[in-house]
Amino acid sequence: MTSDGKEYIHSLKNFSKNSHTGEFLKNEIIKVIEEVSAEKFCSIVSDHASNVVLAKNLVSTKYPHIFPIRCIAHHINLLSSDIIKLNWATNIITCCKKIVTFFKQSYAGGAILQQEIVENMIKDGGLKKYVITRWTTAYDCTDSIIRCKNALKQILENESQLLNLEIISILRKQNFFRNVKDLRTILLPIKKAIINLEHKSTTLADCFINLVIMATAIKELSQTSNQNFSKECQNVFDKRWKEFNFDYYLLAYFLHPKYRDTGLQINTFRIICEKALSIWKLLGGREKSANELIAQISNYSLKSKPYDFEFVTRIHTVKNWWLMCKQQNNHIQKLALLMASIVPSNASCERYFSILGCLNCSLLQNMLQMHAYYVSNISNEIKHAYKELSDEGFEDAVTKTTFPFDDKIFDENDDELENNQFENNEGENQISNSQNFDSFFNVTDIELRRVLEIEVTVEIPLSTEYTDSSEQDFNIESIINKSLERRESGINNITE
Predict the structure, then answer these.
(1) With contact defined as beta carbons under 8 Å apart, do 483 and 276 qualify?
(2) Which residues neighbour 442 within 8 Å (Cβ) at sequence distance 6 or greater?
(3) Residue 264 — φ and ψ, nearest 5°?
């Protein structure tokens, strides 16, 4: 995946007869890197299986400028899977599925429900099915129940003879619709996160913001009657958070000019500086440029010149905003554009394998390379198609036509999938950080809530040449301590 969102397939290989050790995977990855050229890579993105994590780290040891990034799509899928498996959520989803199945299979019941939908002008149609293999359908199912709430109540009151005893019992349960609504509240940010991750323009900052929105939704749920469920969700979130090496995402969030340090706890600034300097060191930066970088980060945080431009959503992009910030030795600009260029998900890669299925890979390589090329360049290849759509809208349209699946295909194996979904979570218990989410973020921050209503825009990198002959093995702690002292002095002067 290139920084401008284009995908290229290098090759397909059948490793089914090989032992997938970290060393083996590392060697295969390095073969690809060296064939393409190591300078053209900035990250390797994968799931969190222990052998893959080892392979990424071994590659990064040889090529320090290639960062090992955990695929956030897998992280969010594991998180959403844990939430759906909680007893309370499972019971609600089961009841919703029974209601949907009944009205889909009952001719009389389905007809009267459709009549109620038309008469009450309910938007977005009728009841939606939940399919275990497609996570966004959990939200769609609960949302459809809430949208059809009044229609279902009318049928229960006036046409109860059309319903069986089980459906009547579910609809008459105390707080049933309230519980469905609460579950929908949690599922909405999950759905948005999954949809956002399908776009090739998604950045590390976009992904981190989705995690913040999910944490906020869970916190707000504690104010409802389902405090036990809220607590369980918080425990799930904290568990997955501790497994997640978030520092790349946190730095990208900070370097997004719309957000900067909005909502961050005070102690988080040091973590950001440490990560920025560790990356800078890996990129070959020396002590002099590192001191300059930290000074620039401090000025950026304080919105001092040249970082005092307002970020205007839908006009600015991360790239053009940073390109406006002109100065000599613009290290922070180089770092920010690099972070914005990293694609944090391999979901599109896995989509290709889903398209091709389990065919013989020797027959697939050319097909897959052609498919990737045409998807990446389709706007040029088909110049008159979808002119009215944005790039992301066009991408959605292509994806939909690629997957003309019917729900029945998935229904047959739902029971088996419910038992096996996400069982292969190798390495999921590896702890990457020891602190909970609240140690870094204040989700009650008013400014944070305001900016989270605004969509993050994406963009791409620029390289900047700079000569630095100072000490390469510099002390990160020493530089940060000096910078924080200057920063505190600057804040005090502003306050006075």
Answers:
(1) no
(2) 263, 264, 265, 448
(3) -80, 145
Annotate 375-397 with DSSP letters as a single string.
Answer: HHHHHHHSTTSSTTS-HHHHHHH
Residue 134 buriedness (CB in 10 A; 0-12 / 13-18 / 19+): middle
DSSP β-bridge partners for residue 380 = none
Give the CA dihedral 339, 345, 351, 353, nearest 10 degrees: 100
> Is the entire prediction scored with pTM above 0.90?
no
Question: Distances in Å between the alpha carbon of 282 and those of 67, 247, 318, 467?
Answer: 9, 15, 23, 15
User: The tokens 């102690």 sit on which residue?
Assistant: 267
Q: At what angle do helices 365-381 and 391-402 cross, to 10 degrees?
A: 140
Contact indicator for 9, 369 with CB cutoff of 8 Å: yes
Three-state DSSP at 432 gives coil
Closest CA to 96 of 136, 132, 145: 145
Beta-bridged to residue 441, according to DSSP, are 264
pLDDT, tens digit, 9 for 90 and up, residues 365-409: 566 666 666 666 655 555 544 455 555 554 555 444 444 334 443
